[in-house]
Amino acid sequence: MSPHLTILLLYAALLMAIGLWVGRRVQGSSDFFVAGRRLGPGLIFATLLAANLGAGTTVNAAGLAYRDGLSAWWWVGSAGIGSMALAFWVGPRLREIAAARDLHTVGDFLEHRYGREVRAMIASLLWVGSLGILAAQLIAMGFVLNAVTGLDRWVGSVIGGIVVTVYFTAGGLLTSVWVNAVQLVVLVLGFIVVFPMILASVGGLPQVIAGTRDIEGFWSFWTGGESGWFYLAMLGPSFIVSPGILQRVYAARDDRAVRLGVGLNGLALLVFAVVFTLLGMIARMLVPDLPDQNLALPTLLLESLPPLVGALGLAALFSAEVSSADAILFMLATSLSRDLYRRFARPDANDAQVVRVARVAAIVGGTLGTAIAIFSDSIVDALSIFYTLLAVSLFVPVIVGLYIRRVRTPEAIASIAAGVAVVAVDQITAGSEGVAWLTPAMLGLAAALTATLAVMAATRKSMEVS
Length: 466
Known about the structure:
Layout: H1 3-23, H2 29-34, H3 41-52, H4 56-68, H5 73-101, H6 106-113, H7 116-149, H8 153-201, H9 205-212, E1 223-224, E2 227-228, H10 231-241, H11 243-250, H12 255-286, H13 296-303, H14 307-345, H15 351-374, H16 379-403, H17 409-430, H18 440-465
Antiparallel strand pairs: 1-2
Helix pairs in contact: 1-8, 1-14, 3-8, 3-12, 3-14, 4-12, 5-10, 5-12, 6-7, 7-8, 7-14, 7-15, 7-16, 7-17, 8-14, 8-15, 10-16, 12-13, 13-14, 14-15, 16-17, 16-18, 17-18
């Protein structure tokens, strides 16, 4: 067995052991869903950054940079910009409402603000959409283990699915927070060591520029290839309204913890956007003929570093994928157990029953996500569809509705229906290409806002006539 694989398997066993140990401290649904609302800025920062540094921000970001160059910065950079908006604009206000009304999920907020119809629509949409992004995380784990061992990618996806399902099911958010803290230490330490070593091994940034300058559009910041600033419309709103992120905000002990913890997470994402973009560009210079762009980062860690340092980098990469996967399992567990089961199927369910259903939902979600990962190949397609769906369905009900009281249930339902319908039509007719320079996310957001304004105007006119 190679040292790389040995270290990864031992690390996976450690994560499961920590999860099972911390899970024994879970006393009820408050611990499972919002970690008792006790998180300070340090743990908020750790759990958010660990959750956000997943397949999209590591393997996929480097793969996009391998293909398109510097403009791939916008993939992770947009997440950082969205996180900043959450830290200083949306997050503190949502946390205050959640604490005052004992809200545990985004569905709780939507029902408080609009009613059960909106809650049901969003919960159903997100349960389906979340399986796609969970599969993307597991696909990335498969690429890591494939690069290390040569095993079929699906084997790595299965191993990753087992690890994250075991430790999350033990204790929900409380477990995730503490496991994420361990993962973040490994992740940050790994790339603090790895990045400068890789950059130095190729002669520094001037050599990277010299070695790739002849690739058309490779050093264009705004747009290049299929990447560019338009990622902001898809990823920026998603990192403000994602239920997996907002429930971590709910767990903060005060507004200062939100501003500081979420803000530092956003700043770190802006830095990591540079790191993973440059790593992908270095991979393009060193190994320009990879059969799959998603192999860029794991191949770089294996072939350009001493074995032990490469193993540390691969452990950091594995950490990133696992920590993001548990955030998605969290969304699956909460949307089914609280937003659907407790609200519609068993309103009289007690805490123990809700937590039990959440654990079953996590197991089912982990199993289905693993199955999808086994039969899928593309990380970017799964992530793009999910993030677009997230942005167009939640932007108006959460962000606009938080500040404009005239947005009520009819407006919220119309925005969700219009945004999702436009994205669905675009997927079927244009194949995710958008129309002209408008991406599917831009079209969906425009449709959602237009529908909101139209219903608002119709309601106002009806009131004037009556």
